[in-house]
Amino acid sequence: MKALRRYLPEIDLDEEEVPPSLIDRMIVKRDDFAGALNEVEPSAMREVLVELPKISWNDVGGLEDAKQQVQESVEWPLTSPEKFDRMGVDAPKGVLLYGPPGTGKTLMAKAVANETNANFISVRGPQLLSKWVGESEKAIRQTFRKARQVSPAIIFFDELDSLAPSRGQEMGNNVSERVVNQLLTELDGLEEMGDVMVIGATNRPDMIDPALLRSGRFDRLVMIGQPDQEGREQILEIHTQDTPLAPDVSLREVAEITDGYVGSDLEGIAREAAIEALRDDDDAEEVEMRHFRRAMESVRPTITDDILAYYEDVEQQFKGGGTDALRDTGGRIGFQ
Ligand code: ATP
């Protein structure tokens, strides 16, 4: 097609046939291949899904402090980079969201992309490693390239710990070392283009290569912890928006007694309560408080004492001296 396009001006489209002399001269050149390579993406990269998420801040309940921090570190550099120039500091390039599972890290990354009208590219650590066996660093490179093409964009690395574990912790090959190095190169190269931001998410911040957490990389660390009572009530409200609730239902009461439940647990309670209502009566038209009580019995809270202690420890480590201090703890912190 590239070659044909070159000859198109010489072809009289009103004629039925192309003159044989022209056909004889037609050749596909090296440049045509080069041009084609620019246009056709490797099929695996077509799977790098670029989306414009529909989640807004209103869909994220509670977590006010964290929201504020994410807004500062992601929205400002994308929407008003001049603020940082004015203050003579570099805008943050990457933010690491860490915290227990199901607390809304993915949700928050999507909300911030939506709010800034940025394209959202989501990369799951384990998936990238398995799909691109032997070529993971190439996949990283292409992900960043894609982000630049569709900027403003946010690249979201979910389960970053699996992609970039501390070098030395890996199992017998140097894949993660190459991946970490590639990530570092890409992050360091982001400077020239302020409109690509990187958000990482992890449940195990202590497992991440400390080099990635230094200044100019994932240099803002935001803990997405368990929601407080008010936050839990908001989350329950969000997830019962379309559910008809009986007058006896008090989401406040549910929120009061669900200490330790995170966002995804509360979503589970709302769903389970509706199912309980249907179980009682096929034709049920509303969900009652007793259904919520039963749902709370079947959905267990994610946060246990161990998990709480682990994150408190990690948070302290990050506050007191940052990543180096964390690294120095060696194997001291950890939970299973
Ligand atoms: P993981 O560490 O397991 O990837 P995560 O922190 O990324 O978890 P999400 O995927 O964002 O968690 O949340 C899972 C689901 O739980 C969301 O789709 C959402 O429905 C619900 N949820 C979690 N947190 C909140 C919240 N703060 N407000 C509203 N819904 C929430």
Describe this structure in a few short sentences.
This protein has helices spanning 2-7, 20-25, 30-39, 43-46, 64-79, 82-87, 105-115, 125-131, 136-149, 160-163, 175-189, 229-239, 251-256, 263-280, 289-298, 305-319, 322-328, and strands at 50-51, 94-98, 119-124, 153-158, 196-202, 218-223.
Estimated share of beta-strand residues:
5-15%
Query: Span between N and C termini?
Result: 57 Å
CATH-assigned fold name of the largest domain: Rossmann fold
Integer average pLDDT: 85
Shape call:
globular
Count of alpha and pi helical runs: 17
Ligand set: adenosine-5'-triphosphate
Protein described:
By secondary structure, the chain is α/β, with parallel strands linked by helices. The chain has 3 domains: 39 residues, no CATH class; 170 residues, P-loop containing nucleotide triphosphate hydrolases (Rossmann fold, 3-Layer(aba) Sandwich), CATH 3.40.50; 70 residues, Helicase, Ruva Protein, domain 3. The protein is built from 17 helices and 6 strands. A 6-stranded mixed β-sheet has the order 1-3-4-5-2-6, with helices on both faces. α9 runs parallel beside α11, α12 packs across α14 and α16 packs across α17. The chain is globular and about 85 Å long. The termini are far apart. The relative contact order is 0.11. The C terminus is likely disordered. The chain binds adenosine-5'-triphosphate (ATP). The site of adenosine-5'-triphosphate (ATP) has 19 residues, from α7, α12 and α14.
